[in-house]
Design a protein that fits this description.
Helices cover about 5% and strands about 45% of the residues. By secondary structure, it is mainly β.
Length: about 290
C-alpha cells in the first residue's frame, strides 16, 4: 500500500511540472504566411477567394545545410493554408525554432503521393463552372507554386507565387470579307496537347506525361470574341491541328507548330472570313511572367 502511494505521488509531481500543449509553445513564435501574387494573380484574375486552400511544406536546415523536401518527415508536410476572405490560417500551427527554414507552397491543395512526380491534369472542358469544391474547371487547371529559401524567425513570411502552366488566349477578328456581326454561338478548342503532367513540388517544374495521348481542350469564353485555356507546357514540333473554331454548323480548323512554355501567355488571333479557306491564323509572341 505504501509503495502504491509513493508511485502515485511521483506521478502527480511529474504532471504538475509538465507544460500543457498550449504552454509548451511561445505563441509569438507561430509561423505566419502571406501569399503574394504579382499582376493578374490566380486563374480567376481576381485574387484568392474565401475558401481557397494552399498546400504548404516546411523543411529545417541542419546548420547551413538545407534539408531536402520529402513526402513525409519534414518540419511540416502538406499543411493546409486556408483563406477566409481576409486572412490566412495555417493548420496545424507551426512554430519557429532557431535556425533557417525553406518554405514551399502550391495551389490548388491536393492529396500528394510524390513530391517530385505528383500527377496533375488540366481539365478538358474549361467552360464548366462550379463543382463539388466550388472551383471552375479553369481554376482547377491552374497550378501555382512558391518557395521561400533560408528564412529565419520573422513576423510574417511573404510568398510570391508563380503560374507554372501556360495560358492560351484566342481572339476572333472579323476580316474585310466577313459580313455581319461577330458570331455568338462559338466554341473554341485547343487540339493536340497532352493534358496530364508530373509536378516537382521542390522546384515547381511541370513535365508532360509522355505516356498519355494528346487530346483536346475546350476554351472558356471571356467576351464575345475572346477565349482562353490553360495548357500543360509542351512543344508541338510537327504541324498539327492546333485551334478549332466552331460557329453553328461551320468549323474552322487551323494547323501550326508551337512551344507552350511554363508561366507564359500565348495569344492566337484568328481573322474570320466568309470563305473558310481564307481564314488566317497568327500566333503572337509569348508574354513572359504570366500574372
Amino acid at each position: 500500500m505504501k509503495k502504491t502511494i509513493l508511485i502515485l505521488s511521483a506521478l502527480a509531481l511529474a504532471l504538475s511540472c509538465a507544460k500543457s500543449p498550449v504552454e509548451a509553445f511561445d505563441e509569438s513564435a507561430e509561423m505566419i504566411l502571406s501569399p503574394v501574387f504579382p499582376g493578374e494573380s490566380k486563374a480567376t484574375a481576381a485574387g484568392f477567394e474565401s475558401g481557397d486552400q494552399i498546400g504548404i511544406y516546411i523543411t529545417k536546415y541542419n546548420g547551413e545545410t538545407p534539408f531536402p523536401l520529402q513526402l513525409a518527415g519534414n518540419w511540416g508536410s502538406n499543411l493546409t493554408l486556408s483563406y477566409n476572405g481576409t486572412s490566412w490560417t495555417l493548420a496545424p500551427k507551426v512554430y519557429w525554432e532557431d535556425g533557417k527554414f525553406d518554405i514551399y507552397g502550391y495551389y490548388p491543395k491536393m492529396d500528394v503521393s510524390s513530391v517530385d512526380a505528383q500527377p496533375f491534369q488540366v481539365q478538358a472542358d474549361q467552360t464548366i463552372t462550379g463543382g463539388v469544391e466550388g472551383m471552375s474547371a479553369y481554376e482547377k487547371s491552374d497550378f501555382l507554386w512558391a518557395k521561400v529559401k533560408g528564412v529565419s524567425r520573422t513576423g510574417s513570411v511573404p510568398m510570391a507565387f508563380q503560374h507554372k502552366m501556360c495560358k492560351v488566349n484566342v481572339k476572333l477578328v472579323k476580316g474585310e470579307e466577313y459580313e455581319g456581326e461577330s458570331p455568338e454561338d462559338v466554341a473554341v478548342y485547343v487540339h493536340s496537347t497532352v493534358t496530364e503532367a508530373r509536378l516537382d513540388l521542390s522546384t515547381g517544374d511541370v513535365v508532360i506525361d509522355n505516356r498519355r495521348p494528346a487530346t483536346s481542350i475546350r476554351a472558356r469564353k471571356t467576351a464575345l470574341d475572346k477565349f482562353e485555356a490553360i495548357v500543360v507546357p509542351q512543344r508541338l514540333s510537327n504541324r498539327v491541328p492546333l485551334v478549332e473554331v466552331v460557329c453553328g454548323q461551320v468549323s474552322y480548323l487551323f494547323e501550326s507548330t508551337v512551344q507552350f512554355k511554363s508561366g507564359t501567355i500565348h495569344t492566337i488571333t484568328l481573322t474570320l472570313s466568309d470563305n473558310p479557306e481564307k481564314v488566317a491564323i497568327d500566333i503572337g509572341g509569348q508574354i513572359e511572367n504570366w500574372g
